[in-house]
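Entry:
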Amino acid sequence: MQQYFVKGSAVSPVTIEDKETSKHMFQVMRLKEDDEVTLVFDDGIKRLARVLDVEARQFELVEELDDNVELPVQVTIASGFPKGDKLEFIAQKVTELGASQIWAFPADWSVAKWDGKKLGKKVEKLEKIALGAAEQSKRNVVPSIKLFEKKADFLAQLDQLDQFDRIIVAYEESAKEGEAAALLQAVTGLETGAKLLFIFGPEGGLSPAEIESFEAKGSVLAGLGPRILRAETAPLYALSALSVLLELEK
């Protein structure tokens, strides 16, 4: 069944105001009266909805659905600005894998240089990608997107004590040295709803100065298996590992 995210509260009847959503519903999918879809509102609850009036773009809410596919912990993926369209790829895939927030920052060794104006357009594009991926993967929430123009602003987020329960830095030097337990130890014992931040470097990795800064803020350095992963692959590995450790073992 097709799923759509609708901004606002779940009050029946629902009128679809967003033009792109409406176009997909009634022109692409050609919904007609009495057809049913799943609508997800700001509260993250899925609801079965039936088309009342095609011309008015109105739906009747039928019932709440007991379907929550979110990870048991809230995961923020933070990546140093990667080259090309890799951030678009990362946003799509980590949304499918359950990330709750997607951040990116100008790392010391980032080749990509994006100013404020370009960042604004980038955010808009990433938000559309995350929305589409969230609908496709039947998420209950759409990840929020935040791109930092200055690394200092990103580092300031790490000083907010209630922001995250655990910060893990994917560090390839740890993998090269054979470290194999830090990731497992870092996620063991996390309570449901805990907030976890994963930090990843761009293509060139994270600089020694950045690693020092992250460690000073209480971050855990962890290798992601014995192989060195690309910048766009590492976040996918981390989220997949989390799913296995926190969801599939039950």
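The longest strand covers residues 46-53.
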